[in-house]
Amino acid sequence: MARTQPARIGLGVWALVVALIALVVLTFLPTPYVIQRPGPVYDTLGSAASTDGEQVPLIAIDGAETFETSGSLNLTTVQVVGNRERTPSWFELALAWMDSSRAVVPLDSVFPEGVTTEERDERNADLMVDSQHEATAAALHELGYDTGASVEVVSTVEDSPADGLLEEGDVVEQIDGADVTSAAGLRAAIQDAEGDAVVLTVQRDGEEHEVELTPEKEQVGGVDTWLIGIILTTDYDFPFDVHIQLDNVGGPSAGMMFALGIVDELTPGELTGGNDIAGTGTIDATGAVGPIGGIRQKLYGARDAGADYFFAPASNCDEVVGHVPDGLTVISTATLEESLDAIEVIADGGDVGALPTCSAS
């Protein structure tokens, strides 16, 4: 016997009610993911808010002649929606999955198990300070200044490979017999070991010690990283003061853009030729540019900020291909020198197509 019209309507209403109830339940269920989205963009040639809210130069140089600049050298950031205390809802995740400027990533890749949000923020703040020192050293090295360096242990992470073996104040002189001249260089050597044990030679209370450590793999900013569990600082002998003002931003990925901004301010003329350039990448004192996480979100942040060109670490190019927003040219770079050479081509109106780019194959 055929169902009557009222019966069919009644079933439809109940189906809708059940669907709405399911949607509400999914909204409140915890999820094992967080969302990455484009964060604020900061011009290293411009200003930023100080701790008291006053606008001050993002890069301030005291003790050396500086020069007027133009255009912009923008560092890009990524914002994370969610944490271990509150993850995004399934509804929020569904919206993010449909947005090409956002990424849904496993919670553990951004907030490792056993690491509190406060501990993560503290680690990222330390990495930001270290990146500023490395960027200053790289810029001054590029400009011909001589800077000495000593890499010192600030603290160790509990239950990490270094816990109980390294101490605050240890000066790291060598890794596997090779001299250590920067914190970034030490980290690079640990990555190159790919999980094999490394031997650190350290100075402690005037005595030399050798310590063997086996790195552990973790995800930092969505990138697999080998860690031994130490917070480092690099003490350089700079000929003048370079102060970088940027609160509430953590991690090492702004290093290259800091270095470009410092070079621009210390050299006559307008480095960018008035162009709006953005980018990202870690940097060490030798000028080597390293990979970062969240690069696709940074591309969209740069596009939305009005940048025409984006400098990406060569080691991130595989993540860029096929994900470049319209109107943005992504230039591949592996060193500060390569970045400066590419900016010169852009500023002079040269053939940008001849530069190494992260483009579809």
How would you characterize the overall build of this protein?
Helix 4 packs parallel to helix 6 (255-266). The mean pLDDT is 88. This protein has a six-stranded mixed sheet. Strands 7, 8, 9, 10, 11 and 14 form a six-stranded antiparallel sheet that branches. The protein has a two-stranded antiparallel sheet with strand order 2-3. The radius of gyration is 24 Å and the shape is globular. Strand 12 (216-220) and strand 13 form a beta hairpin. The chain is an alpha+beta fold and 361 residues long. It has helices spanning 5-28, 90-97, 107-110, 117-142, 183-193, 255-266, 295-304, 317-320, 336-347; strands at residues 33-43, 47-49, 55-57, 59-62, 72-81, 103-106, 149-156, 171-175, 178-179, 198-204, 207-213, 216-220, 223-227, 230-236, 241-244, 276-279, 282-283, 289-290, 309-313, 329-333.
